[in-house]
Design a protein that fits this description.
The protein is α+β, with helices and mostly antiparallel strands and 384 residues long. It has twelve helices and nine strands. The chain folds into three domains: 145 residues, Nuclear Transport Factor 2, Chain: A, CATH 3.10.450; 62 residues; 133 residues, no CATH class. Helix content is 45%, strand content 20%. The strands form two sheets. A five-stranded antiparallel sheet has the order 5-6-7-8-9, with helices on one face. A four-stranded antiparallel sheet has the order 1-2-3-4, covered by helices on one side. Strand 8 and strand 9 form a beta hairpin. It is globular, with a radius of gyration of 22 Å.
């Protein structure tokens, strides 16, 4: 089991080339790009916008702080688009942390279409699943233009759209999210707080009590716990509220997760960087898996030891980064690191108190997820 987790992690890293490398490499190619290339560029540029927002020096996000940091966003969008986003903020209703009208990050996609494609621009359309069960799916149309041999966003719009998700698309969506599932049934689905006119139901292959549900009409997906099988063939009882608080917290702190482990192409690393990557990411992931499967340790001991290993890896990686970047950039890293520590503290504590009383297991689960993602972010932003 633990080897499977590690192999999957390594395969995901190796399979996904970083578009940053493509973007940073000037090209004289005047041929239109493929839909795969366009999708990679779109994903990377949009992620970079949100990375810039997450790693900015200011804790507050409003018109004033965005305007001060305008130059940080212009490698990824035109000035006209940046001004449009800033001007859309209602300063009276939003003083500290504003919800910005940037393009949505592209993690879970139902469909991708390249609708315009020239030598110096392209327009790509992503169909995104609904976030809430009573919403429609979204169609995000984004236009990129080439500027200084890089593609940046010149325009975008997001609108509700009608979809009819197939069983195969639903399974592919769950697989992309990292679930190993087995199809159970399709049709109307109802739990006391979740009602879908038509859905595809899958069960976790490791724990059949956990079921994944994907709505046919909007791509909305959720997880439910099947509490018990009722006698005489009646329908099972679902604890549909079990994951809802965690999902709300994850949405609130989505900026903490950049998923840069997917963007690092190990074949592009120098021997020195490969050693650093192995020492502070691959080997650390393997070590945490070993600890998690160590039957000689109590649950509390496993959790504390994993947290210790991860924190030591963060400190070690930052020490390595200091050797490779100038003093001004390292000072910037230190400021951002303090902000991240505070955000992680808030995130993990909200996870631990999702149901009111403190749950130590959930605290450490959130701690592990956030810190593993942060290790990849540090490597990607400062060494890759």
């Amino acid at each position: 089991m633990k080897k499977w987790f590690l192999i999957l992690f390594v395969l995901l890293l190796a399979a996904c080339n970083s578009d940053s490398a493509q973007q940073d490499t000037p090209t004289n190619n005047t041929s239109p790009i493929s839909v795969e290339q366009a999708n990679t560029i779109a994903t990377d540029v949009i992620n970079n916008i949100w990375d810039t927002l997450a790693t900015g020096e200011s804790i507050e996000v409003n018109k004033s702080t965005l305007t001060e940091n305008e130059a940080s966003f212009l490698p990824y969008m035109t000035k006209e688009l940046f001004v449009r986003v800033v001007e859309s903020i209602d300063q009276e209703d939003c003083i500290v942390n504003c919800i910005l009208a940037f393009p949505e990050q592209i993690y879970n996609v139902l469909d991708v279409q390249l609708i315009e494609n020239t030598a110096n621009s392209f327009t790509i359309e992503h169909t995104l699943p609904a976030i809430f069960e009573d919403e429609q799916a979204k169609k995000q149309t984004t236009t990129f233009i080439k500027q200084d041999e890089r593609y940046i966003i010149s325009d975008f719009k997001t609108e509700a759209t009608t979809v009819s998700v197939t069983k195969e698309q639903a399974e592919e969506l769950l697989t992309t999210l990292g679930f190993d599932v087995l199809f159970v049934e399709e049709g109307p689905f109802e739990a006391s707080n979740t009602t879908l006119a038509y859905a595809y139901v899958f069960e976790d292959q490791e724990d059949s009590r956990i079921q994944m549900v994907v709505g046919r009409d909007n791509g909305y997906y959720t997880r439910v716990i099947k509490d018990d099988e009722i006698a005489n063939g009646d329908a099972p009882i679902y604890n549909e509220n079990y994951f809802a608080p965690y999902e709300e917290i994850d949405q609130k702190y989505a900026y903490l997760f950049t998923y840069h482990s997917m963007d690092i192409d190990e074949s592009q690393l120098t021997p020195e960087l490969q050693h650093i990557y192995n020492t502070y990411i691959t080997d650390v992931i393997s070590q945490t898996i070993d600890i998690d499967f160590d039957g000689s340790l109590s649950s509390e001991e496993r959790q504390e030891k994993i947290a210790q290993v991860l924190d030591e890896a963060v400190d070690g990686l930052i020490a390595e980064i200091e050797k490779h970047i100038d003093a001004a950039r390292f000072e910037e890293l230190q400021v951002n690191h303090e902000i991240w520590l505070a955000d992680r503290y808030q995130y993990t504590n909200e996870w631990a108190h999702a149901f009111g009383t403190y749950d130590e297991e959930q605290f450490y689960r959130a701690y592990k997820n956030a810190t593993e993602d942060y290790l990849a972010r540090l490597f990607y932003q400062y060494l890759y």
